[in-house]
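Lecture 7, part 2: worked example. A protein chain together with guanosine-5'-diphosphate.
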Amino acid sequence: MSVTVVIGTQWGDEGKGKIVDLLSPNVDIVARYQGGANAGHTICWGDETFVLHLVPSGIFHEHVTCLIGNGVVLDPVAIMEEIRMIRDLGYDVDGRLLISHDAHLIMPYHKRIEEARERMRDAGAIGTTGRGIGPAYVDKFARTGIRVVDLLDRDTLRRKLKRAIEEKNAVLRGVYDADGLDVEQIIEEYVEFDSLIDPFVTDTSQYLGQALRAGKRVLAEGAQGSLLDVDFGTYPFVTSSHPTVGGCCTGLGVPPTAVDTVIGIVKAYSTRVGNGPFPTELDDAAGERLREVGDEFGATTGRPRRCGWLDLVALQYTSMINGLTELAITKLDVLTGLDTIKVCTAYRYDGKETTRFPSEVQTLEKVEPVYVSFEGWSEDITGARRMDDLPAAARRYLRFLSDSLGVRISMISTGPKRDQIVSESVVLDTADIRPVGTGG
Ligand code: GDP
Ligand code: IMO
Ligand code: MG
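Predicted complex, written out as structure tokens:
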């Protein structure tokens, strides 16, 4: 049995879509296990750029079966739109896209409640993507959710929707002073999904179990990033699911013993969309430069991403939680042209240095990053395909990351396109890896 999990190690947008697309030729199934249309996974080849929100990033490889697991919260409108887009591009989805009958649905009232709650939180708002993710997971765990299987039975759907909307309307009007939703209008709209979604719906955990026993190779595609995990992230400024490795087991129904490879996707610097603490954030021209050169604008909401230096304290923590077996470093090219590149190796808090990543935001908000500095490089690396093509300074930076995390690097991405990758024989030399300076 072989399951490879691709995990975002930071706050999302590490380049998971690109790496999953790249690995797809070597697998049979690509499966999403958590999150929903809050994800925006970008894939580029030639002059084309595609952003996927729900459909797994293996869809552009005809031999791959793409699967949306029970752990995902599915917006029926968003999935049908995405399916249409993929078909319009000339790709067949019939028989290749499977949706779990157990996945919970995102309904218009989830978005309405999220919007009202964010408005009420004011300065304490999370800065969500507005896709209804949190309220949909609340309903799932409150055991009041509506699932994909319910879409296939009009009577059940009507009954469940009526009850849910009446309750949500009471909350919207009574608690949030917001407008309620029209019960009949929503029912009429959503009963129509039965025949549209039916061809894709199946028992995906059974399907995966049989596939694994038959020796099929499965790639589980994480959405968001480990620091947005509802348990291990910067709570409450997190998403409502488990992007970390355990989410793959509960969100797909694959046993932990089947997972043999865990690839951590690490952007060569840090970004974050939405609110919450971000110790290495750069509020200056250096941060602006990373945003401009890295084109750091949200793939789902278009919001500018906050940018900062790489944070090894956070990465050591997410590497530990996920048991990473490999690293894929992305966006290395964005660092080209910087005289100095900084990496945070510890936090200073209360006059003391620590390498512990605090789980409480009150502390994380107050820590000061302790940096080491690396010499930059000026050579264009976007055409690099082998380790030897990278300047010595870039190799030193990579080597330091790999050594600090104790995990080998198997891929280095040097541009957004499929072929911009160093993946064959990624061997890091043992040259002096000491940083050029410390402090500040
Ligand atoms: P995901 O959510 O983790 O799949 O990442 P996103 O797609 O939201 O954001 C990553 C962005 O960086 C996308 O615009 C990608 O096309 C782009 N990208 C991925 N890898 C590289 C890289 O190595 N270099 C550059 N310059 N861009 C990259
Ligand atoms: P991908 O898969 C980056 C962030 C939001 C917000 C917080 C909660 O593309 O890496 P939510 O809508 O999930 O309730 O918002 O999480 N967030 C992401 N940030 N990439 C993502 O997905 C994200 N999905 C959610 O900005 O801070
Ligand atoms: Mg993204």
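The longest strand covers residues 340-349. DSSP finds 14 helices and 21 strands in the chain. Keep this in mind for problem set question 3.
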